[in-house]
Amino acid sequence: MTVLSFTVTFHSPFRVGSAYARDGVDAALDRHDPLPPDHLKGLMRAAADDLLGPASDAVFQVFGSRRNASPWAWSSAQPGEPGWVFSFRHRVQIDTDRHSARKDHLVLGEQAWAHQARFEIRRVGALDDGALARHVLVLRCAASAVHGLGSWRRRGLGWVGIAPDSGAVSAGEVAALLDLAGVAP
């Protein structure tokens, strides 16, 4: 079984919204799983779309499509010690005429922080050697292309770097990805 490991380095706190509300918090996050696998997969798929094009067969093969499931499974990100640190952040909408906060436009949101967190991507489907090499190339390059996650990124949250634990993406890998994308270097 092929397992790819990645480290997320956080440059700011982040918030990935939860599917449920909590009393006293307008924009809650899931304190049990603040950086879930579906969010990581979605970020990497969006990065792969940017790198290869949204209609790329390679993107469909690696991340799945409506007709075919992905042969890969993502884990949640797990922080190192001391674990996730949770805090609150306010957001307010300003009335431009009065230069004060607009009535009922103050948002209290939660955010999470850690210096670093790790996640894994495990191969769960069969791939021949050529397909496996292409998939690993796309996954490594897509992860390295992610620099923001969660919501409120334009407000200073969610700035990250993701690096493969097996080493940085090489110039040769970038050239191979450009070739896969059909872009002449």
Descriptive notes:
- The chain is α+β, with helices and mostly antiparallel strands and 185 residues long.
- The chain has a domain at 3-12 and 33-81 and 116-181.
- It has four helices and seven strands; from the N terminus they run βααβββββαβα.
- It has helices at 37-52, 57-63, 129-144, 171-181, and strands spanning 3-10, 72-74, 78-79, 85-95, 100-113, 116-123, 160-164.
- Strand 4 (85-95) and strand 5 (100-113) form a beta hairpin.
Structure described in brief:
This protein has 185 residues and is of the alpha+beta class.
Task: Give the tags.
185 residues, alpha+beta, five-stranded antiparallel beta sheet, two-stranded antiparallel ribbon, elongated
Secondary-structure topology with pairs:
Elements: E1 3-10, H1 37-52, H2 57-63, E2 72-74, E3 78-79, E4 85-95, E5 100-113, E6 116-123, H3 129-144, E7 160-164, H4 171-181
Antiparallel strand pairs: 1-6, 1-7, 2-6, 3-6, 4-5
Helix pairs in contact: 1-3, 2-3
The tally of strands reads 7
Mean pLDDT: 89
Order of helices and strands: EHHEEEEEHEH
Q: Which structural class is indicated by helix and strand composition? A: alpha+beta
Uncertain parts: none
Discrete helix count: 4
End-to-end separation: 33 Å
How can the largest sheet be summarized? 5 strands, antiparallel
- Binned, the helix content reads 25-40%
